[in-house]
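Reopening this ticket.

The earlier resolution said the output was attached, but the attachment link was broken on my side. Pasting everything inline this time so it's all in one place.
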Amino acid sequence: MISKKDIQRFKKIISSVDKPVLSVYCNVNPADPDNFGRAWYGRLKNTLKSMDELKVKLKKGKTFYDELIVFIDQLIVGARTLALFAWVNDKNELEVEHFELQVELPVVDLVRGRVETHFGKPYVLPILYAFDEFYRVGVVHVYGSKWRFYEVFLNEIKEATETFAEITPDEWNEFNEYAQIIESGVLDERTFRDKLKFKDKQKAKLQTLSHKLYIRLAQMLEKSIHDLEIDRLILMGNDWQVKLFENYLNRHIRELIIGYAPRLSNIENPSTKEILERVTPILRKAEEREEMQLIADAQSPKGVCGLQNVLEDIQMGRLQVLILPWDLHAKVYKCKDEMIFANPEEAQEHDSSYEEVELKKEVFQLVAQYATRIEFVDGAMKEKLYNELQGIAGIVRW
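Inline output:
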């Protein structure tokens, strides 16, 4: 899994490169029929071989292309998307940074095995968007004699084994005994307060121990959420126990909860694949709710739409949020002073020296100058953006 440190390191490195960078995005998904037998490798190799910029000789006599192919030959890829960045350093040696991602990226057109390449300024919008805007999700499996906490990011999952590590086996056993008592018959009562009214001293003792353990578990979870910088939370397990545990969480943690999932089929040997299958629909619903709100805001009085209007508001510093379709194809016109216009007539009026460029390769740098946040929409909301908001929209600050 890609960690926060990995991302920070990459951002620091790529921002410090003052040489032309080869940026590559390639569909390497082994489940795609077009990639049978590593067919992506041949397409990628042919694309790179056709680039004249990669024929330059390096320190050891090999070309940029030759050394890059040696690097790619060593990759054992099982992801969906390969993102690769390569350049020649001050010692005339090849440097490469790459990521293997289990997601598709916005504005990268890789249908039918297409390879997207760019040579010059690092084309990092797609991957930086993924790093910055895809949520880190925590999944708490609340069940039985051992609870588990997982981190989900970019469709990868990793157990945070240290979260509940200090709870001893004896404590888990007592806690599990308490849970079994509740499940054995007290569940017929209507409220948790009624459920917890045990007459038996042993049951009362278990209740007290469990109450204290719930408090500790909530504190441990809060620490992991803070340390891992978790953005969203999903609770998984039996409904009564999940809802009971939720009551022990502080308000900030409860506000991160976006859904609930039933307990796993194999408690002792949980499958990460099954966890992803359970939480993915919950994540997608949360994303759809947010996308619907973005489009609604763009259609309100505080919204703006159309390429010309949006570009004007960005460069006036008025735009708070820029809403783009997942498959952005817009062309714009860039002048020498970095001003960008929606049509050549406007650019000509501003400066006779301008060039046609792809918005997707300029937009990240453009919005960074004005502290504008980018949001991509897909599916039904993408169609709504195209049909009702001219394919691009925004939300203004004032």
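Reporter confirms the inline version is readable. The chain has three domains: 4-132, 137-285, 299-396. The longest helix spans residues 201-228.
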